[in-house]
Amino acid sequence: MSNGTPLGDFLRARREALKPHDVGLPEYGRRRVPGLRREEVALLAGVSSDYYIRLEQGRESSPSAQVVEAVAVALKLDAEAADHLNRLCLTASQRPRGWGEAEVSRQLLQLMDGWEHTPAFVVGPALDIMAANSLATALHSGFDQFDNLARMVFVDPAGREFYQEWERAAHSCVAEIRAAYGHDPESARIAEVVAELSAQSEEFAGLWKMHEVKGKSQEGKHLKHPEVGDLNIKFAAFTVNGAPHQQLVVYQAEPAGPTAAAFETLRAMAVEPKQARAAAPEQAQSPS
């Protein structure tokens, strides 16, 4: 994904995204580099220029907690980006074990299947769909495959119509993968997804280079299904106990509203094929 180190790449991208006036520094004449100079970040963080340069170049990979906090303040990182910076400073032995792909538990699958009126699905660190109930599958039936949220947003032709606030969805997808990358920079699956999407989408590649970080949270979404039309949903994501790399995503509709009615139509559409498949063997065995 890069020739640099995860820590150095992040620091460089966030430094280049800032202008001198963003941090209260004067700006004189033409600047040869985008954003702040390394020396300016070092000044703001209260460290030597040589030390900060070593951080960006990967020659210093274990800064103290005080230095990390000072650099985060200097780069005006929000809480999520500052946490990401702290994770990038961890050594391999310091990272939590058990981060990565695993099967979705049988109990969670049963729970989701019981939510007949609520779309629910589980995503992995690279936004792969690891499991989904029938209503979630019906909701995403306009896509070629319901397999990876980022691929669906950036590559599938249905993405721009389904996600009515496409730019917001695009930024969120990339920022969520970037957050997961901070937990496991060596993840082969994240590297694979990033490489594939960067090759297929210039927009994804550009957003990935920005190093924005954001986890899933509660918010609203405006979607448009090809058969039931506009959907205004409430969205929430929950970390799965025992599998912190998995996120349970739940879509909810306002009770008795148009989106709830659309969900019921989708549920009926999902049930009909099952009934047809169940009836087929009986029809085949009945005498002509």
Note the gap between the termini.
Answer: 62 Å
Report the strand count.
Answer: 5
* SSE series: HHHHHHEEHHHHHHEEEH
- Fold-level CATH name of the largest domain: Beta-Lactamase
Give the mean pLDDT. Answer: 90
Give your account of this protein's structure.
This protein is of the alpha+beta class. It folds into two domains: 6-94, 434 Repressor (Amino-terminal Domain) (Orthogonal Bundle), CATH 1.10.260; 106-278, Beta-Lactamase, CATH 3.30.450.180. It is 48% helix and 13% strand. It is built from 13 helices and five strands. The chain has helices spanning 6-16, 38-45, 49-57, 65-74, 79-88, 106-113, 134-139, 149-154, 159-162, 166-183, 188-200, 202-208, 258-285; strands at 120-123, 129-132, 219-225, 229-240, 243-252. It has a five-stranded antiparallel β-sheet with strand order 2-1-5-4-3. Strand 3 (219-225) and strand 4 (229-240) form a beta hairpin. Helix 2 (38-45) packs across helix 3 (49-57) and helix 2 crosses helix 4. It starts with 5 loop residues before the first helix and ends with a helix. The mean pLDDT is 90.
